[in-house]
């Protein structure tokens, strides 16, 4: 393992310290927690948005704390959901009297820890609602199992639910629009190389030089198929096809996100994006807005994901609304 | 044989030793069918538990197990934190006022712990989670009026090994579907350590 770090068991604390030092006028770290909150939290009479999850997905989620997006982000250990007490601190810190909304990625651990925090908050009389994001079509959706994972599409939930809250939407309004995004967003990823969790010290899986894994999760969870590496066009086709098969995008307008997993250069992401646009044009799907870059990474994994969000007038307007955060501005 | 504060402290210490010694093994099991953090999570959590219990005084098994629960809940994270935290919390509530805790009181506690695990995680037996160890151990305790540590450990071991052939329905391993077969469930292995440590303490106390 070759990493720029001090103590592998302190990477999260060390990172947060540097993050706050980089954006001192915008964010604060709640004392003795791993919570990053807006500097001016709580914003009175605004629904507070809290998200979070394991670390290692930077800029998610602390990078999305700011006007028009999240009020707080809770950082867990690398790839491990944060604990209920930390989430609870975040909820208390952003409660401006209009309730708190939790954006949770669909992983067993995240759901359990956030729900326990919500129970603690409810016992204190704070109104809490939540949405569970499950955009990853690599996993079959099923009510009998854990269900699909939450990946890069989560950033669209932050953006749109955040805009709704900023405009003065009620807790129920924010929940409704967040659910609309979840119903209309799908993603699919692939990886070329594994990543190494600092405390584990060795790569999460092995993969040959000439291989890629389709459907890889953002924690190095194995995907659906291991095969010989293909061209960027073929990769773009396979990912986009899987997404288009899952919900009916025909005749619609979409937001596209081509997301890098950590060590894939922008050059490669743009090459993928070019083919994604061609495919959508061939299908008569209009691209309203495109995002290319690193939005939800997996440490130093090489690979990418393609996300499509089907838009209506409300979602378009909220996507365009002002956002000022360290990692996302509009 | 009954469990008092001293024996439960020993139980927790033995469990911590096993987790620290097998940290890499648990993590490698989780790398195969999960995200490779189970050993790290458990080692971090139980080290904190030991830091806490070795510097505190307890009058009852209930107080001690409650502290274990709260520490696990706030230090482990992931799926295993809430599950083990809930298990110890329910055990603590169940054995309140029962010191020293005899076989029947402990069995009732394990029943409550398992109920808590299942309420939180919504897993049934046979879905390749730690429930697959807790449920058979509970049945064994219910079917006997004494602890019988040797058989208790054997029951937990057989149960842990049986998770190898199961196709996962819950937890991260479920993403692999059929491919999860042939691998032990990491949480079931850590739960085996939990009951193995208990059996060792009971054996020494006999
Ligand atoms: N819904 C569930 N119910 C019971 N046990 C579960 C559930 N989900 C996961 N587990 C247990 O948790 C273990 C994984 O723990 P850990 O790796 O620490 O958390 P995470 O899966 O969040 O990374 C699994 O091996 C399994 O035994
Ligand atoms: Mg794990």
Q: Which sheet architecture does the biggest sheet of chain A show?
A: 6 strands, mixed
Order of helices and strands of chain A: HEEEEHEHEHHEEEHEHEEH
The largest sheet of chain A has its strands arranged as 1-2-4-3-5-6
Our Rg estimate of chain A from Cα atoms comes to 19 Å
Structural class of chain B: mainly alpha
Instruction: Profile the largest sheet of chain B.
Output: none
Q: Topology as H/E string of chain B? A: HHHHHHHHH
At the fold tier of CATH, the topology name of chain B is Serine Threonine Protein Phosphatase 5, Tetratricopeptide repeat
Overall shape of chain A: globular
CATH superfamily assignment of chain B?
DhaL domain
**Helix run count of chain A:** 8
Strand and helix map with partners:
The complex is a heterodimer of chains A (330) and B (206).
Chain A: H1 11-22, E1 27-29, E2 35-38, E3 48-55, E4 72-78, H2 84-94, E5 100-105, H3 108-123, E6 128-133, H4 154-166, H5 171-184, E7 185-191, E8 211-214, E9 225-228, H6 232-246, E10 253-260, H7 266-282, E11 286-293, E12 303-311, H8 313-320
Helix pairs in contact in A: 2-3, 4-5, 6-7
Chain B: H1 5-21, H2 23-33, H3 38-53, H4 61-75, H5 80-94, H6 103-121, H7 131-143, H8 149-162, H9 186-205
The structure holds adenosine-5'-diphosphate and magnesium ion.
Magnesium ion (MG) binds at residues 30, 34-35, 37-38, 78, 172 of chain B.
Pathway (chain B): Polyol metabolism; glycerol degradation
Catalytic activity (chain B): dihydroxyacetone + phosphoenolpyruvate = dihydroxyacetone phosphate + pyruvate
GO molecular function (chain B): glycerone kinase activity; phosphoenolpyruvate-glycerone phosphotransferase activity
Question: In words, what does this structure look like?
Answer:
The complex is a heterodimer of chains A (330) and B (206). Chain A has two domains: 174 residues, Dihydroxyacetone kinase, domain 1 (Rossmann fold, 3-Layer(aba) Sandwich); 136 residues, Dihydroxyacetone kinase, domain 2 (Hypothetical Protein Tm841, Chain: A,domain 3), CATH 3.30.1180.20. The mean pLDDT of chain A is 96. The longest helix of chain A is centred in the last third of the chain and has 17 residues. Helix content of chain A is 32%, strand content 22%. Chain A is of the alpha/beta class. Chain B is mostly helical and 206 residues long. Chain B has one domain: DhaL domain (Serine Threonine Protein Phosphatase 5, Tetratricopeptide repeat, Alpha Horseshoe). In chain B, 68% of the residues lie in helices and 0% in strands. The radius of gyration of chain B is 16 Å and the shape is globular. Classes of the chains: A alpha/beta (330), B mainly alpha (206). The interface between A and B is medium-sized, with 36 and 32 residues. Adenosine-5'-diphosphate sits at the interface of chains B and A.
């Amino acid at each position: 393992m070759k990493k720029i770090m001090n103590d592998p068991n302190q990477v999260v604390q060390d990172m947060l310290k540097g993050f706050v030092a980089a954006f001192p006028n915008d964010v604060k770290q709640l004392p003795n927690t791993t919570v990053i909150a807006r500097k001016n939290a709580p914003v009175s009479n605004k629904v507070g948005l809290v998200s979070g999850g394991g670390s290692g997905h930077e800029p998610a989620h602390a990078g999305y704390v700011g006007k028009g997006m999240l009020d707080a982000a809770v950082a867990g250990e690398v790839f491990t959901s944060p604990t209920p007490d930390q989430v609870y601190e975040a909820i208390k810190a952003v409660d401006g009297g209009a309730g708190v909304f939790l954006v949770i990625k669909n992983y067993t651990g995240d759901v359990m820890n956030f729900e326990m925090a919500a129970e603690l908050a409810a016992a204190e009389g704070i109104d809490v609602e939540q949405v569970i994001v499950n955009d990853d079509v690599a996993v079959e959706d099923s009510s009998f199992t854990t269900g699909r994972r939450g990946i890069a599409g989560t950033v669209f939930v932050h953006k749109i639910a955040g805009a709704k809250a900023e405009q003065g939407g009620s807790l129920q309004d924010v929940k409704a629009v967040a659910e609309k995004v979840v119903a209309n967003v799908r993603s699919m990823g692939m990886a070329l190389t594994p990543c190494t969790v600092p405390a584990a010290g060795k790569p999460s899986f092995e993969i040959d030089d000439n291989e890629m894994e389709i459907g890889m999760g953002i924690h190095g969870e194995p995907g659906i198929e291991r095969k010989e590496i293909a061209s960027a066009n073929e990769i773009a086709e396979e990912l986009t096809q899987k997404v288009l098969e899952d919900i009916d995008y025909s005749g619609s307008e979409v937001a596209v996100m081509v997301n890098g997993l950590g060590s894939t250069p922008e050059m490669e992401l743009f090459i993928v994006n070019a083919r994604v646009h061609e495919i959508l044009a061939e299908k008569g799907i209009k691209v309203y807005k495109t995002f290319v870059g690193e939005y939800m990474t997996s440490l130093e994994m090489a690979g990418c994901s393609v996300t499509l969000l089907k838009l209506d007038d409300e979602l378009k307007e909220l996507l365009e609304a002002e956002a000022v955060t360290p990692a996302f501005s509009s | 044989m009954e469990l008092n504060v001293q024996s439960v402290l020993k139980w927790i210490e033995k469990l911590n030793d096993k987790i620290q010694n097998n940290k890499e093994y648990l993590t490698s099991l989780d790398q195969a069918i999960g995200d490779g953090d189970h050993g790290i999570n458990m080692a971090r959590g139980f080290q904190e538990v030991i830091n806490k219990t070795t510097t505190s005084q307890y009058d009852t098994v209930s107080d001690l197990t409650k502290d274990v629960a709260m520490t696990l809940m706030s230090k482990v994270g992931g799926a295993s934190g809430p599950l083990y935290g809930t298990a110890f919390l329910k055990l603590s509530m169940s054995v309140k006022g029962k010191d020293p805790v005899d076989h029947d009181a402990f069995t009732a506690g394990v029943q409550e712990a398992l109920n808590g695990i299942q309420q939180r995680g919504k897993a049934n037996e046979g879905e390749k989670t730690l429930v697959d160890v807790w449920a058979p151990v509970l049945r064994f305790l219910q079917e006997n009026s004494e602890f019988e540590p040797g058989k208790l450990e054997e029951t937990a071991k057989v149960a842990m090994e049986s998770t190898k052939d199961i196709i996962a329905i819950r937890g991260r391993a479920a993403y692999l579907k059929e491919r999860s077969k042939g691998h032990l469930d990491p949480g079931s292995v850590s739960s085996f350590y939990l009951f193995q440590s208990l059996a060792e303490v009971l054996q020494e106390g006999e």
